[in-house]
Design goal:
The structure holds two protein chains of two kinds. By secondary structure, chain A is mostly helical. Chain A contains 15 helices and no strands. Chain A starts with 6 loop residues before the first helix and ends with a helix. The relative contact order of chain A is 0.14. Chain B is an all-alpha fold. Chain B contains 14 helices and two strands; from the N terminus they run ααββαααααααααααα. In chain B, strand 1 (63-66) and strand 2 (71-74) form a beta hairpin. Classes of the chains: A mainly alpha, B mainly alpha. At the A-B interface, helix 1, helix 4, helix 5, helix 6 and helix 7 of A face helix 1, helix 2, helix 4, helix 5 and helix 6 of B.
Chain lengths: 280, 316
């Protein structure tokens, strides 16, 4: 396929790529620029690509209408805790399934893998009931415990296991001959070698938690406890109509920091996410 | 796990000479213990958050459960009968099938097209790869809200159409256009993932094959269908499985863009389940609907896995 192209073919190709890029780039552009426009200008005709007189009013309203800084903090700390917890749980069990021989290993691995096949919607009614019993509804515990220990971490375990299998075993054998126990071998020898896999797991786990929508709206009911995706849909006027510029400002605050990190570390993002085949 | 200690106690008669340390804790036993300890968090989590809920959901489906009234009565197969009698369900399943088929078709074709374009020898393809991929990292609800705004009757897309003299419809309120709007929004959000997977697959195809085909006089189009597609078929299968399963779980997009409307035109199974369980508080019937989702996902995965023999050229 990759043969050199004629200059004319190149021009055509660039043109096609640029047209195709519009629906991928334009919404983000529109979101950010429109958040600086007054409502009247958002719906102005002809549409303006740039705010005529940029103003920060919408951003002020974001924090007035909702405890947005609190909600931002909620999303951030939940995603961080879930990411670190998942890395710990998944690398431990991924290592055991890859390297340690113990009875019932294969059966237990299959049992864990079952989590991959079960959509989270299937278990959410009983999970709601379980957390209700423990009086944990309208707390962040369900959003933290289930992803770390339940089905969402299974994909991470699988990725870690595949990675550990691909590592040469000699280093670990040498470490064990030197008298290192299993955990010390894992902690001091294997984990430092596992940065690529851990990075991939960290990226998709963080994004998964950051994007979670069904679970927060099922478990949470107090605005102070909301996470960002849930909060974004709450900017409505007295008649339930969306307040577009405020909503777009809040959406920009949610999306732009992640986009900046993505641009800085795009290789890790793209390869990490592609290897995990995340559905988002 | 309660079995852990017993299984270690049973151990296995040592087949090789006992190591230097002559204690009960031979290295093999220590290894067994380490293995169990390493997987304990995951195993407990699977039991508590996957297996027990799975049993419970079946149990719930056999009950009439009204949370508001506080009633929980055994009704046997009544919820399953309601499933058959539910007059909304055919429309819901139709919408679900339309969404999945539409999404997979559009997503995979666009992903393949983008991958082939980016696979050409051309400067700047990395920049375009980044652009096409960027929506993947944008918060799903933020992305959906922006599109929801663009697709308004007086929103950005119709404004642009008007510039070229076209009077666009009210995309999200029209029976025919609502579903395709949701599909397109979702495709642009996530097609970058499949694109990258296809790109990696294309890069794995040895170029000598094309040279040989060229010698045999096969045109580019023919090469693509006869060589490229079969050679990357494992990736096509993988991406189609991931995309189908993902498509069955679409929720936020529907909740934000259409709330299942107009009518039930975009009420897919997950959204209908959410309405029944968490808006109308029919937990028993909701549990039954979620089991239906489970069965559909399981059956599709199984089917696609079986099909790999038929149309996948080789297994990696």
């Amino acid at each position: 396929m990759s043969r050199s192209l004629s200059p004319r073919a190149k021009v055509v190709l660039y043109g096609v790529l640029m047209v195709l890029a519009i629906p991928f780039v334009f919404p983000t552009w529109w979101m950010v620029t429109s958040s600086f426009k007054p409502v009247s200008e958002i719906f102005a005709y002809p549409p303006a690509l740039w705010p005529s007189s940029p103003r920060l009013e919408a951003y002020q309203r974001v924090f007035e209408l909702q405890p947005f800084e609190r909600q931002y903090f909620n999303s951030l700390y939940i995603a961080l805790v879930v990411t670190i917890g998942t890395m710990a749980v998944a690398s431990l069990s991924g290592y055991a399934f890859a390297r340690i021989r113990f009875r019932g290993q294969n059966v237990l691995f299959l049992v864990v893998l079952a989590g991959l096949l079960i959509p989270s919607e299937v278990t959410i009614v009983p999970l709601f009931q379980i957390f209700f019993r423990f009086d944990l509804i309208d707390t962040h515990w369900p959003l933290i415990l289930v992803p770390i220990f339940g089905a969402p971490s299974v994909l991470a375990t699988f990725i870690m296991r595949q990675f550990f299998i691909s590592l040469p075993v000699e280093l670990e054998e040498a470490a064990r001959v030197d008298g290192l126990g299993r955990f010390a071998t894992f902690w001091r020898i294997v984990l430092p070698l596992s940065r690529p896999a851990l990075g991939a797991v960290a990226i998709f786990t963080f994004l998964h938690s950051w994007n979670l929508y069904l679970e927060p709206i099922v478990y949470l009911s107090t605005p102070e406890k909301f996470t960002l995706p849930q909060a974004l849909t709450q900017f409505t006027d007295a008649y339930g109509g969306p307040m577009w510029n405020v909503q777009l400002a809040a959406a920009s605050l949610t999306a732009v920091p992640v986009l900046i990190v993505f641009v800085l570390a795009q290789r890790q993002f793209i390869e990490g996410l592609a290897h995990t085949g995340l559905k988002g | 796990m309660s079995t852990t200690s017993t299984q270690i106690g049973v151990g296995r008669a040592e087949s090789r000479p006992t190591p230097a340390r002559r204690s009960f804790w031979t290295s093999r036993r220590r290894d067994h213990l380490a293995g169990y300890l390493f997987i304990t968090p995951q195993l407990l989590g699977t039991a508590a958050f996957v297996l027990i809920p799975l049993v419970l959901v079946v149990w719930y489906s056999l009950h009439e459960w009204n949370v508001l009234a506080g009633t929980f009565t055994y009704v046997g197969g009544e919820n399953y009968q309601s499933l058959l009698d539910d007059r909304n369900l055919p429309a819901v399943l139709r919408a679900t099938a339309l969404f999945s088929v539409g999404l997979v078709t559009v997503n995979l074709s666009l992903a393949l097209l983008l991958a082939v374009l980016l696979h050409q020898r051309l400067r700047g393809t990395m920049l375009f790869r980044t652009l096409f991929f960027s929506p993947v990292v944008v918060s799903l609800v933020a992305w959906t809200i922006v599109w929801g705004f663009l697709l308004q009757d007086n929103g950005g897309i119709n404004a642009m159409l008007r510039l070229v003299g076209i009077d666009g419809p009210n995309w999200l309120r029209g029976e025919g256009t609502a579903m395709w709007s949701v599909i397109v929004v979702q495709v642009f959000k996530n097609v970058g993932l499949n694109m990258v997977l296809f790109l990696a697959a294309l890069q794995g195809v040895p170029s000598e094959i094309y040279e040989a085909a060229e010698v045999d006089g096969a045109g580019r189009w023919r090469q693509f269908w006869r060589l490229t597609v079969p050679l990357i078929s494992p990736t096509i299968l993988l991406t189609s499985i991931i995309t189908v399963i993902g498509s069955l779980q679409v929720f936020a997009q529907i909740a934000v863009l259409t709330q299942g409307g107009p009518g039930t035109a975009t009420t897919v199974l997950v959204y209908y389940f959410y309405q029944q369980a968490f808006q109308f508080h029919h937990f028993g019937y909701g549990a039954t609907l979620s089991l239906l989702l489970f069965v559909i996902v399981g059956a599709l995965t199984f089917l696609q896995w079986r099909m790999r023999r038929r149309w996948v050229f080789h297994e990696s």
